[in-house]
Design goal:
- By secondary structure, the protein is an all-beta fold.
- The chain has one domain (26-286): TolB, C-terminal domain (Neuraminidase).
- 0% of the residues lie in helices and 44% in strands.
- Residues 1-19 form the signal peptide.
- This is Streptogramin lyase.
- GO terms for molecular function: lyase activity; zinc ion binding.
């Protein structure tokens, strides 16, 4: 992989929590067969199919979102430790190839199965976002840096997120970071100005990994170490509120049970999750707005 290299800074942090009761916000609908190998984040593609970063498979798995049947595997062997996938408005695709310390960039779905030959360096990257403004945001987890790129060139960085995972865009263009090690969510402007921090016992974070944002601005967060999926209203009084929970806090298999869930993709009233240690994708349907 030919990379446009860059130098990035470093930092550290951490902190604990435990949460209040909240009702389920969706009901179990469907599960795929356990055909994956530690699936991480996932996203709906522009073709209406579901794309999953299959970490230990070093590939992108493609599913039919209606049946959760596996359609094909792409890039097998080219994407060591792959954690995240993001689709840009122009049809481009960013893939966080963690063990390569890079975000690979593809021009279109037509070449997603090929060996990547362009991208940016981001040590230990676990999250990538192709923003609606055209820029790429990458979480260089190994050095705790959120980096912003334009045309593959580094524009700006913000430090203080060692071990952080996802970078997700809200409807207003704001950026949410799942700050795993610090057990919190952090909101930034597109210019990387810090706007909000969601943390504390009310949310019970034990390891938020990946998230997605609903059309109404709710955050849907996979709290891996708690074996739960959380729905959070970031605009509620007092700096946000926990409004819904899936999972009982213990690892398991079956409706309303997860084992180390990581990925989240919201598609209207449907929620797709990577049930990572069960090596499958599950779908839930909304029951609470």
């Amino acid at each position: 992989m030919v990379m446009r290299s860059l130098a990035l800074p470093l930092l550290l942090l951490s902190s604990p929590a435990l949460a209040q009761e909240a009702p389920p916000f969706a009901s179990f609908d469907l599960a795929s067969e356990p055909v994956l190998n530690d699936p991480h984040d996932l996203a709906m593609g522009p073709d209406g199919r579901l794309y999953v970063a299959d970490k230990f498979g070093a590939r992108i798995a493609v599913f039919d979102p209606e049946t959760l049947e596996l359609i094909e595997m792409l890039g097998e062997g080219f994407l060591p430790g792959v954690h995240d996938i993001s689709f840009g408005l122009n049809g481009s695709i960013a893939v966080a190839v963690t063990n390569a310390g890079a975000v690979a960039i593809y021009e279109s779905l037509d070449v997603l199965g090929d060996e990547p030959d362009i991208g940016v360096t981001a040590p230990g990257t676990e999250g990538a976002l192709l923003h609606s403004n055209g820029d790429l945001y990458a979480m260089a987890s190994a050095i705790g840096v959120l980096a912003r790129f334009r045309d593959l060139k580094l524009v700006s960085t913000v430090e203080g997120h060692p071990g952080a995972h996802d970078v997700a865009e809200a409807a207003d263009g704001a950026i949410w970071v799942a700050d795993n090690a610090a057990r919190r969510l952090v909101k930034y402007s597109p210019d990387l100005e810090r706007l909000q921090v969601i943390e504390g016992p009310a949310f019970g974070f034990r390891g938020p990994r990946y998230l997605d944002v609903t059309e109404t601005g709710m955050l849907v967060v996979a709290d891996q170490d708690a074996h739960r999926i959380l729905m959070i209203d970031p605009d509620a009084p007092g700096g946000g509120a926990l409004v819904g929970v899936l999972g009982d806090g213990t690892p398991g298999l079956g409706p309303n049970r997860f084992d180390d869930p990581e990925g989240v993709a919201v598609d209207g009233s449907r929620y797709f999750f990577s049930d990572s240690d069960n090596n499958r994708i599950v779908r839930y349907s909304v029951v609470l707005n």
